[in-house]
Each structure stands twice: as structure tokens, then as C-alpha cells.
Amino acid sequence: MANIFFDNSIIFVLTQLVPLLYLLTTGLYGVHFFTELPAAGRFKQPALILTVLAHVADLGILTSLEGYRLSYSAYNLMGMVALTLAITYMFIELTTKSDRTGLFVIGFAAVSELFASVLTVQASGNGPSFSGLGIGVHLIAAIFGFSAVAIAGLYSGLYLVLFRQIRLNRFGLLFRRLPNLEAIELLIMHAVGFGFFFLSVTLLAGVVEQHASAQAVNLLEPKLVTLVGIWLLYGISLFIRPLFGWDTKHMAVLLIALFVAITLLVALMSLMTPTFH
């Protein structure tokens, strides 16, 4: 089958435009974060909204055409993670009127989308696609779960950097631009709660789908063992402070380690196999 991205000029242009918009939006947030340039502050939110709309339009047109379906490949997952991060952050910014962490969240989304767009164009769309409610819920929950893991890891990193600056009495740029430690801690716990919820749904939907399709579940499969391990650690993280007396600093280290582990897992699977599942 011919590659749909080269046969349809609209799809090709949008596929190239979306990662460029992510990079442009990241640049505007970065310029405003470091220099507070009024023009960057004025255009960064419209750029974010335009990026989200362009990404949604790209997926909508792509999946409406016969011959291509979203699959549970690693590059499709990374593209959806980018969109999920952008949408989640956009609503956070619009509702809280706080744009102090946009550079870091949108920056990670831009890297994910750049990675996804390069591999997506190289694919013909013949990969295994998902169908059915169970596998659809399983995949969407996994995407939201990974996004929550990413946000928790990013905010944990910011917490540790800001904590170190305060400890060393270095009240520099990050101290002036970032939210205070209490606000970041609240964001971390919300992200952990969302992550645990969506990872729970991922596991439950996967079990239901396996039962419905009468397929045997290999309890020792590396992907399943890894997912269950991360799910357990996230669940423990919700109660780690009252149970073990850990402070936010130690919990942040754990969340960063989980974020790195699951990111490496996705990257390795994208290199070793064409499918994420």
C-alpha cells in the first residue's frame, strides 16, 4: 500500500506543521520564562491553542481517511502523549491563570511529538490497529497514565531544583519564576493521583479485554511486570508520607526514577518492536 502521508498533501503538510508548532510554542514559553518579553507572553497562549487545534485536526483527518488507523505502536503512543500533555496543561493554564511551568511541560510534549512525527511518516499505516471498547479504553488510559507519570516526574524535578536553590540561599531566576514549593508539591500529588487512577484503569481494561478475547495472560511478560510494578509504586506514593515518614524531597526522587524508567521502556520498545503492546 502506498504511504498515505505522501499521497495526501494536506496530511503531509499537517504532519510536518504540528511538530514545528510545538517547537514554536516551546520557544515562546522559553523566551517569556527567561526574559519576560511582552511579545512572547502575549503570543504564547494563542500559539498553544493553535498547536492543540492543529494536532487534533491532523489526527481527525488522518483517521477519517480509509487506509490508515491509529495503532498501538510506540510512535502513535508518543504522539498521543504529546497531545494529552498539551491539552492537560492548556486547561491548567486557562483555569489557574498560572503559566510558570509551561516551558517544561510543553517542551517535553514537543520532544514526544517530534519523535512521533518522524516515525509516523515512515510508516505506511499497515501496523496492527486496535478495535473494540476494551482495547480502546486500555490504550487511552495508558496514554493518560503515561502523561501523568511525565508531569509528576517533571514537577518533581522542578521541586528538587527549587528546594536546592532555597537551601543554598540562591534566590535566582527559577526562584522568581516558578511557583513556591507548596504549590509544586500539590501539583505533584495531583499528578500522582491521576497516574494511579489511569494505570489502574489500564490494568483493569487489559484484563477485561484478555478475558473477552479468551487469550491467556502471561503473568511473567516483562511489559506486564513493569506496568504492575509502576502501578504499585504509584499507589504506595499516595500513602508514602504517612506510612514511611518520607518527605516530598525523597518522594520526588522516586517519581523521577519512575518517569525515567517508563520513558526508557517506551523508547526501547519503539526500537525493538513496531508495536507498543
Question: Would you write up a description of this structure?
Answer:
The chain has 277 residues and is mainly α. It is built from 11 helices and no strands. It has helices at residues 4-7, 9-35, 38-64, 74-96, 102-122, 133-167, 173-177, 181-212, 222-237, 240-244, 248-272. It is flat, with a radius of gyration of 20 Å. It starts with a helix and ends in a 5-residue tail after the last helix. The model is unreliable at 124-128 (pLDDT under 50).
Brief sketch in words of this structure:
The chain has 277 residues and is mostly helical. It folds into two domains: 1-71 and 90-126, no CATH class; 130-277, no CATH class.
What is the topology?
Blueprint: H1 4-7, H2 9-35, H3 38-64, H4 74-96, H5 102-122, H6 133-167, H7 173-177, H8 181-212, H9 222-237, H10 240-244, H11 248-272
Helix pairs in contact: 2-3, 2-5, 3-4, 4-5, 4-6, 6-8, 6-11, 8-9, 9-11
| Amount of helix | over 70%
Average pLDDT figure: 77
In terms of DSSP E residues, the strand content is under 5%
Structural class comes to mainly alpha
- What are the low-pLDDT stretches, counting only 5+ consecutive residues below 50? 124-128
Number of helices: 11
Q: How many separate domains make up the residues? A: 2
* Approximate shape: flat
Overall radius of gyration: 20 Å
The number of distinct β-strands equals: 0
**Element-by-element helix/strand order:** HHHHHHHHHHH
In whole angstroms, the N-to-C terminal distance is 23 Å
